[in-house]
Amino acid sequence: MADVARLAGVSSQTVSRVSTGHPSVVESTRQQVLAAMQELGYRPNSAARALKRGEFRTLGVILFTLATTGNSRTVEAILAQAAQEGYAITLIPVAMPTQDGVLGAFTRLGELAVDGVVVIMEVHLLDAANLELPPNMQVVVVDSDAGERYPVVDTDQADGARQATRHLLELGHETVWHVSGPIESFAAGRRTQAWRETLEAAGKAVPPPQLGDWTAESGYQAGLVLARNPGCTAIFAANDQMALGVMRAFHEQGRSIPGDVSVVGFDDIPDAHAFFPPLTTVHQDFAEVGRRCVEGLLRQIRNEPGSPGTDLVPTRLVLRGSTAAPRGR
Fold it and tell me: Domain HTH lacI-type spans what residues (predicted)?
């Protein structure tokens, strides 16, 4: 900065004001300083300025995997919204969903200097009574029922599952079979619970769910089991990849979709319209989840009033060609 000041013939304070965009510098002087910066290859030390201000313009994201559609698209949405607000993102993956793993990630983010953290839990870890996040860090949690202790943003998993199940019942199917996500997944648990409660409220039989792991292969294996049951005419799969596997199994067993069986997924991935037939599915608004996560963190960073609680982003059912009334209706 002193070198720039000497070359431009101004004070170091003027150079500082130019580097921070201070409006008090006249335009001719600003251009003189900028020319000196360019000649000397000077770049303001944003890290040093951040330490002085106590604001780093960076948000951290902690998560366990990017392999699932929900996690990857949520991170993408957070990144887009953060960039729009002028913030960068530091991503910290955690190998195992444990208390120590999460706290270790917070330690790393503290060393990297972030203003706040989004924790994408996905699993039931925050249900554990002994889990406590660092008290001095601004935090928003995604995909968890920890709303009593932390600000939580989540898709309305339960309502999406209810919409899917009711749609199939309203078409005239006697009941709805379910291919669930893994038992440790918070979202999968919410969807399974809502599916079961919707059937019970309608006075319908509740078939045993087929356990999947979000992959198309697990949906395929579940589909092979269900395809052997001639009474299975409607299936709600907990995500679109498993729905794809289910549809493949039924096609291979000579059972048509939606003629013999209707299938509904969850997520509304970009390729859902290209399934054969196009997949009826529950749309998740990941962009809105990302926006609310970032806005929630920024409110905390600005010391605006707030409190723990769960902010649910609505879902909507997208009707396509994979569902129809059962034969004879």
Answer: 1-53
